[in-house]
Amino acid sequence: MNSNIALIQLVSEQTMQNVVPAIALKPVRLIHLLPPKVAARSGQISEAARQAHPSVKADLENIQLSEMPSLVETRDAVSRAISNVAAEGLLPVVNFTGGTKLMSIGAHEAAAAAQATSVYVDTEFRHFTDGMTGKPLTELLGTDLSFTPFQRVFTVNAIAVANGCTRVTGGKPFATYKILSEHFLRNPADEQASWEAMYGHKGICPNGREPRSPRDWLNLCDKPLSLPSTVANLGSSVGLLAQSEGSTTLACPRHVQLESMANNPRFRVGPEFFQAIAPLQFAVAFLGGGWWEIAVADSVEKSGRFRDIRWSISAGERGFGGSMEEDVVAVDGVQIAYFSCKRGGAGAKLTRQLEEMDASAKRLGGAFARKFFCIYLSVSPSVQRSLSHRANELHICLLGSQDIPNPDVFSPKIR
């Protein structure tokens, strides 16, 4: 740890530009200058740095600025902070990345006047730029000013915390389902037959309509499924399906609980019911298109570009309406990579979902989150045109089943 650095930072809505230098420099003091509307961001920055690297144990000091800080106000506040830490024998380093342009100019002027080291943090392109106001930045960070030496410490959790999302689960393991997912990807006819068996007009949940009672779920589990033999065998091997005497049905691991509920005249729908039917809902959803999420997660992993790849995470506070389930999330450098996966098809209407995806990605990863909208089946030409236009506006990359085997499709495109 650099035992005598005081990192003086401008804080705004985007926080990774503050977290990254805290990890790289490991200061003993963090001084945040911030307008009232972003006051909560200061603690998020400190906690994200601590989660990413436990050795970051800086004392935190907040300096409140006015609602719209001027160049002069910012310059004077940074100048005072520099003088105060220098008087304590600490080495001031000024991060002038955040805030408005006037705030950045004011902070840079203060650093230049005091001949203090300053830094600009380019989060998108992952490197530091020396502000050329004092001691060279290379004397503190070494000759490599990229994020490469330390970016591996960043996890989905740390980046989410930096952006105000305090709870992210670890997700579900997806290796178990890779073989079945790969089979669907290579065999579209089998995938279509599986979808029909789940959601088709003769399927067990036509148009996505699920049973409402324990007895109806039990009856559903007794219905033979018309599935290709390979799907039946692979589905059975991973516990989604059951095979007996030439017949294939949904596996029902909590049959005893459902039977007890079905025979209870006082039964009321509650958490126990939803826990009991969760494996059945998962099996139906997976065989009816949810497998595509695994295919995407597998391709993301095989690309070698991403870390901390998570499938089916929950993000946000526990409780009704507080937590949202996300398809696939990973880390690329110090950025969240967010993947929304849809089965698609000619009749699918997906354009509106781009807005929801953009909001969810920003909630986890801020403005610099990388966003991928992955669609298995081709949509109609009119929907494709609408999707492409809106995705371009929102900086979302559209990918199809023919794209994801190619690792190059995950490379960033210059805006």
Brief description of this entry?
The protein is an alpha/beta fold and about 425 residues long.
Characterise this structure.
- By secondary structure, the protein is an alpha/beta fold.
- It folds into three domains: 5-153, Hypothetical protein VC1899 like domain (Restriction endonuclease-like) (Rossmann fold, 3-Layer(aba) Sandwich), CATH 3.40.50.10770; 181-292, no CATH class; 294-410, Trna Endonuclease, Chain: A, domain 1.
- It has 14 helices and 13 strands.
- The protein has a six-stranded mixed β-sheet, sandwiched between helices.
- Helix 2 (39-52) packs antiparallel against helix 6.
- The relative contact order is 0.09.
| Largest β-sheet summary | 6 strands, mixed
The CATH class of the largest domain is identified as Alpha Beta
Number of helices: 14
Let me know the CATH homologous superfamily of the largest domain.
Answer: Hypothetical protein VC1899 like domain (Restriction endonuclease-like)
Strand order, largest beta sheet = 3-2-1-4-5-6
**Terminal residue distance:** 36 Å
What is the assembly state of the chains in this entry? single chain
- What structural class do the secondary elements suggest? alpha/beta
The name of the CATH architecture of the largest domain is 3-Layer(aba) Sandwich
Query: Quick one: how many beta strands?
Result: 13
Approximate shape: elongated
Q: Name the average pLDDT.
A: 94
Helix content: 40-55%
| Proportion of residues in extended strands | 15-25%
Q: How are helices and strands ordered from N to C?
A: EHEHEHEHEEHHHHHHEEHHEEEHEHE
Low-confidence stretches: none
Backbone CA Rg:
26 Å
Compute the number of structural domains.
Answer: 3
CATH topology description of the largest domain: Rossmann fold
